[in-house]
Amino acid sequence: MSEPPVVPRRAALVAGLLAACFSGALFLVRPVPDRVLAMLGGPDGGVARHGGARIRYLPPQGHDVELLARHLGSSTVRRDGKALVIELPGIARDQLPAIEDMFVAGGLEMREALESRYATELAEGDPAIVDATQQDRELDDAVYLDLDQWRAEDSLHHQAFYLESSSRVALERAIEAAYARGWRPTPGATIMLERIEPWAESRDRRGKWRTYELASEVLIEGTMIERAIGAISPYDDRPIVLLDFTAEGATRFCDATERIQGHKVATVLGGVIRSAPIINGPICGGRASISMGGSELENQLHERDALVAVLSTGALPPGGSIDESRWSPAPDVRGLEWLGRALLALIAGVLFGLVTVLVVRIARPHRSAASALPTGAWPIRRIFVTALAPVALVLAGWVPVPGVEIEALAETIYHHGGDDAMMRMFDVDALGLTPVLAAFVLVELVALIVPRWRRLRHLPTGRVRLGQAVAVLAIVLALLQSWFVASYLQSLGVMDHGAVARLTVMASLVSATLLLAFVAGVVREHGLGNGYAALVVAGWGILVAGRALDGELTAGHALGLAACVVVAVGTACVVRWRIGAAREVTLRVPTSGLSPITSAGGLVQVISMLWVFGMSTDVLSGWVVELHAREWLTIGLVAGLVPVWSWIFARPKLVAGVAVRAGLVPPQLATWRRATLLSLFLLVAIGAVTAFATTAHADVVKLFDPVTAMLAGVVVLDLFADARAHRADLEPAWVLHQLQYAGAIERVLTDAGIPYHLHASHVRSLLASVRSRRSS
Q1: Which of 15, 282, 298, 745 registers the highest number of CB atoms within 10 A of its CB?
Q2: How many CA atoms are closer than 13 Å to the CA of 120, on its beta-carbon side?
Q3: Domain segments of the chain: what residues?
Q4: Beta strands in 292-383 (DSSP E)
């Protein structure tokens, strides 16, 4: 078996091209850095580069301008006589009035929303106010009385009446009329308004304004904000602003949220309420977030960036005034930006290529050589069977869940900000293969831990028993998931509440999952490659095709596709490499499999869920935000997990026994280190692509998933390898459930002159298991 060494220069060329392509795609979404543009003779940033506003701000009486400028300490703020000149780059012209209001009103405040009867008192004294609980909102500019109800984690039922209208003027007129009649709010409280933007699919495009009665006590004010960061929520992919409090602000917010659990806290900016979330528990991590209203993603991003720009200037005292404000459009620097993108792509390609040369020289990998097999006709029947995977998914996607009123479901989902992707979550294949894959992982983990079960993994009859355990557990998990889906659908009122309707939904969802598992098994036995991986990749391909046909592809989607291609090609190249000396058992890479990426993602999800349910500590709640807002933390987490999983899956002792029995040299510790270095290089690079892509645009995550992208690369390899191998007459010989035994088996079969083929070996390299077939 001749295994040619990997040539460092060729590997560097491929790696450099991939890095350059990803860098170019990334900076089509992200702005080219100001320093790069300045190096090319363009503007050096700020309003000169991005356009925006220059505001001349006069502080209120009694504030020293010099001290205030030093306190703000921002590069966008400078003193000009008795005024401060504040630059706000990237601000749209129509956002300028709202920003001026924020400056004059003193910026940010957080106050408790009271659960009082102010709204009913207003309605009792004004016959023009319509009771929304008795009449639909059909009148233009009418003021409605409505009821806000929620049950927080304090198990108490909370409710607060409020006024709502499509016209801010109408609301303010109603409140002024109440004051004229002698009505007054709760002592020390004030009435403020919140703007509620319409959802994308809402029939009423006017939007709404609603009232809150807020306590006079200011829980948090602008002086207690140390830093504001624009980010994407890890829960609903919406733009948010992350606030870091000062030490005083963190203490005050922790004490306040502990005191008012179950109630709402309103975030006020420029005299307008931006959000009013329910406080389910003490928030003591020194951080909070502000969600952006509205339904259009671009509008939310603009609003987020404007808010970050205002908060980043520092806390301005209330009572100041605007002496002058001027908005400037962004200059046309498109030519320089394209030059900057090309320069950044070149730099990324060269640097990554140099690192690749260094890693390849140290690791000294060689490419795997396929076993010589007799050739015949191409396996047309197997190719046809493999095509069942996308066909089964397409057909399942056309079948709605029986008993569900689709029109009512669509109206409910779209009204609450959902989209077509969320609608597809309630097709008959909503569960997908998740219960089967979860059952397989759980059974394999138990078989590794329990000594009595561990022996079953290597015996044909034992594998049958473990397979039966997987089937039973998969059905149990599918029934459990389908029960929650049915309960959710019933809570939405889109299906009957009887037991028969619930059982019908559960049976249809479980049946669809079992049908997909059957298709995966048929593809595995009678098709090409791994059936489960083929279904996962086919599902992703159908999603991309659907968005393309619907014309929904955005710049974020395009970046996600570019990231998928880069990760798939990089994985396909490296997964064919082996590490080992002449008579030494070779190690496959990545020696850690997919586990560092999947376990890192799982850890983030666990932390996120703890945070959602209020069970996280200060450290955890801060960590989950940083993981989604700071790329280097995600990369570092993956890097730290690679050696751990590599030791679990490929430590030299694990392979020593089979190597000695085969008359081969076991892999040395130095070989394991080289293989781990190469695995670290691959997975850290994929982690970097994931981190930079997902933080660049909210739409990236809708098409890009690193695990799916890696599977796509190796599925293509397996399809070609299996199609080529099945031109010969092959029979199943045995199953290997320890990936790294494959090196010894390959060497023994090659020395004995026995043709063989490892079925779906590239996918199983990522999953740390291999099914092997040899010729009869």
Answers
A1: 15
A2: 9
A3: 1-29+333-359, 43-103+319-327, 107-315
A4: 321-328, 366-367
Computed from CA positions of residues 623, 628, 632, 638, in that sequence, does the dihedral angle turn out positive or negative?
positive
**CB-CB neighbours of 371 under 10 Å:** 18
Pairing of strands 130-131, 144-151: parallel
**CATH number belonging to domain 43-103+319-327:** 3.30.70
* % of the chain with per-residue pLDDT over 90: 16
Beta bridge partners of 577: 367
Structure tokens at 186: 């709760």
Q: Which stretches of 312-436 are assigned E, i.e. beta strand?
A: 321-328, 366-367
Strand partners, 327: 53
Residue 563's identity, in one-letter code, is: A
Coarse DSSP helix, strand, coil percentages of the chain, rounded to the nearest 5 percent: 55, 15, 30
Identify the helix (H) or strand (E) that includes residue 769: none
Name the token pair of 448: 């590794």
Q: Is 83 helix (H, G, I), strand (E, B) or coil?
A: strand
Cα separations in angstroms, 28 against 24, 393, 431, 556, 729: 6, 33, 35, 9, 50
Q: pLDDT of 445-496, one tens digit each? A: 677 677 777 666 666 666 667 777 888 888 888 888 888 888 877 777 777 8
DSSP string, 657-714: HHHHHTT-BPPPHHHHHHHHHHHHHHHHHHHHHHHHHHHH-GGGGGT--HHHHHHHHH
Does residue 370 surpass a pLDDT of 70?
A: no
CB 185, CB 212: distance < 8 Å? no
Query: What residue has token string 């076993």?
Result: 371
**Residues whose CB is less than 8 angstroms from the CB of residue 172 and which lie 6 or more positions away in sequence, other chains included:** 193
What is the C-alpha to C-alpha distance for residues 542 and 9, in angstroms, rounded to an integer?
37
> CB count, 10 Å around CB of 655?
25
The architecture that CATH gives domain 107-315 is 2-Layer Sandwich (3.30)
Residue 356's SS3 state is helix
Phi/psi at 266 (nearest 5 deg)? Answer: -95, 135
Task: Yes or no: say if 111 and 214 are a contact pair by the CB < 8 Å rule.
Answer: yes
> Average of pLDDT values for 608-622?
44
Please tell me the distance from the alpha carbon of residue 571 to that of residue 578, in angstroms, as a whole number: 13
43: phi > 0 → left, psi -120 to 50 → alpha, else beta; which? beta
319: region left, alpha or beta (phi > 0 left; psi from -120 to 50 alpha) = left
- Kindly give the interhelix angle for 334-363 and 669-696, rounded to the nearest 10 degrees: 170
Q: What region does 51 belong to: left with phi over 0, alpha with psi -120 to 50, or beta?
A: left
Interhelix angle 406-415/460-492, nearest 10 degrees: 80
d(CA 269, CA 215): 15
3-class secondary structure, 14: helix
Which of 383, 368, 697, 705 has its CA nearest to residue 536? 705
Q: Contact 356/680 with Cβ under 8 angstroms?
A: no
Contact 185, 213 (CB under 8 A): yes
Mean pLDDT of 304-328: 73
- Closest C-alpha among 689, 583, 694, 584 to residue 629: 694
Specify the pLDDT at position 14.
Answer: 96
How many other CB atoms are there within 10 angstroms of residue 73's CB atom? 9
CA dihedral 30, 34, 40, 43 (to 10 degrees): 120
Amino acid letter at 332?
D
CB-CB neighbours of 260 under 10 Å: 16
Strand partners, 230: 241
Q: What are phi and psi of 714, to 5 degrees?
A: -80, -25
Residue where the block lists tokens 């130095």: 670
Interval 24-74: pLDDT, tens: 999 999 889 988 998 998 888 888 888 888 888 888 777 777 766 665 655
Of the candidates 645, 773, 755, the one whose C-alpha atom is nearest the C-alpha of residue 718 is 773
Altogether, the residues listed in the chain come to a count of 776
